[in-house]
Amino acid sequence: MKEPCYFHDHEVILNYSAEFVTSTSQLLDSQVFNEFLDHYLTYLDSHRRDLRAFLYKNTDERKKVKEDLKNVLHVLLLMNMNKVDMPYLQLPETMQDVIEEGYRYWNSLQRFSVLYAQRADSYQTNSFMNVDNQINEVARNFFRTVEAKITGRADNVYRQIQAGTNASLLMQKYAWKCPKEYQELADIDFVHTIMVRTPLIIHTKSNKRTNTFAPSDHNPVLDFKKGDDDWFCFPALVGEVLIFVYFHKDEMSSCVATSGLFQLAREEDCRGRKPDAILFFGNPDGTKDTVYYHDTDNHIWIGKTSASPEIDYFGYTKKSILTLHNLAMMERGWLPIHGAMVNLYLKDGRKKGLMFMGDSGAGKSETIEALSNLASDQIDHQETVFDDMGTIHMDEDGNLWAQGTEIGAFVRLDDLDKGTAYKDLDRSIFFNPDKKNARVVMPAAPYKVVIKNHPIDCFVYANNYDDKRGMHVFANEEEAKNVFIQGKRFALGTTQEKGLSTTFFANPFGPMQEQNICKPLIDKMFAALFEKGIPVGEVYTCLGLPDKGDHGIDKGAQALLDFVINNDK
Questions:
Q1: d(CA 127, CA 112)
Q2: CA-to-CA distance for 561 and 422, rounded, in angstroms?
Q3: 358 touches 350 (CB < 8 A)
Q4: pLDDT of 63-74, one tens digit each?
Q5: What share of the chain is helix, strand, coil (3-state, %, to 5)?
Q6: Residue 266: closest CA among 173, 193, 185
């Protein structure tokens, strides 16, 4: 990004490397403020016509309105209003409304900043955060000073809101092992450090997924629309997989939210290394593609999610990344599990690893939450391994282990116990909290826990469709595989599906598309599960039943807890 600022829909990106202000007078003369006035006046055209009429009373030209506004503001920064005779100040209460509405409009935008560094050492990192903090102070002081001059008195109640940006990114170029077919990507800056001011609320155009991810017969890099410095790379460590996620600058909010879900790789993780996968997110190619391709020559999985209003939903970011992870892991012989896993640390000193599987809305996270609420007298604490996607793999000695993928959880507010989302309020990112399927990204597990090998003590399918209570343990491998592979659930409308549906292995993010690769892995892992006597069953969550089965999920969680406590495999 070369320009000092970039406005797109309801977002703005400030480029501190191109323009940086240190005072309120510099702010007024900046290109950022000039472009902001354009957008604010456009906003007044349709939202506050009374204020528009006031500003345009003596002219029809926007350029003249902007000049007059800037002149008034410059004067107010230096003088008291009673010493100023200017048309806009003849109605001070209306002028105050113009200022306050402008401040509200600015704060309603998703505001981000970037700073480009040659070398991002600890000094540079601290400096970049100080720079962003300074902008925050300048913007807030500007509003307070102007308002005090108009009203003739200072406030006696101050709210320390974020008047600058919601998040700031330090960018740097990395020298990675770039195949010749991908040379267009070699000079794109990487995200080195992100500072997020939480809690952060993000509003997107869509609030659910409608597309599925499909294999492509050609490499999406051929469709890549580089533009003029329009992209930046978020290097994500997804479990043990390194994925370079290239975000178009229109998708900045998704990039920032990704930092709460996946571990941001460090420069040493990327230097001289070829990624396992590459994703282009928000590619402006005029299609609505959500596709992937296996570059067998370079041994890289390539994904593309094209720019469209439908993909302006963080679920696409998350699932695009996880699909590439799953494809790469299946190639290694690891079985992806769409579900959740926790380690229960019991008060009697034992530890139990519980793994759940089920598609979106099946009740995986809700069952884990119910366990916490029901068994505080028996469970000392829980350790999340993964909240949505994990893997099972076998070591050289034939032992089964589980690993995770995400350091955060992207969960529905509707299905969480009241207050759960607010326990980590100061570390959370909220999506469309005023709409159906409102979501939150919240902390789930440290990266060191995600990539650690965890033993499995019980593996259950989250059944939200059968009108049953409690849980059922499968008697044999075939009975279990039939339920798990069928992948049945009652879809709750959080994706493109509604009602009772089936998805191969409850995982439309790689296994469904590559069943010929996945089926042998299922056979291998399930045979080992039963051979080692690891209980495999299903827990009835009742989320797809009327009134959720009258607290049926609590009964399922209690039955599961009783089983694992009394079962010493």
A1: 17
A2: 26
A3: no
A4: 999 999 999 999
A5: 40, 25, 35
A6: 193
Task: Read off the tokens for 408.
Answer: 């955060």
- β-partners of residue 440 are 411, 430
Name the CA radius of gyration of the chain, rounded. Answer: 27
Annotate 155-204 with DSSP letters as a single string.
-SS------S-SEEEEEE-------GGGGGGTTPPEEEEEEE-SSEEE--
Q: Please tell me whether the overall predicted TM-score, pTM, comes out greater than 0.85 for this model.
A: yes
- 369: closest CA among 385, 359, 353, 382? 382
Q: Identify the burial level of 49 via C-beta atoms within 10 angstroms of its C-beta, where 0-12 means exposed, 13-18 middle and 19 or more buried.
A: exposed
In the three-class reduction of DSSP (H, G, I as helix; E, B as strand; rest coil), residue 418 is classed as: coil
C-alpha count within 13 angstroms, C-beta hemisphere, residue 420: 22
Task: List all residues 6 or more positions away from 416 whose beta carbon is below 8 Å from its beta carbon.
Answer: 365, 366, 369
Question: What is the token pair recorded at 137?
Answer: 């102070």
156-201 pLDDT, tens digit each:
888 888 889 999 999 999 999 999 999 999 999 999 999 999 999 9
> Residue type at 296?
T
Length of the chain: 569
| Residue 1: closest CA among 17, 21, 23 | 17
Handedness of CA 534, 540, 544, 550 (dihedral sign): negative
- Which residues 6+ apart lie within 8 Å of 68 measured at CB? 55, 59, 86, 87, 88
Element (H, E) at 516: helix 515-531
Share of the chain above pLDDT 70, in %: 97
Number of separate helices (H) and strands (E) present in the chain: 14, 26
Beta bridge partners, 386, equal: 341
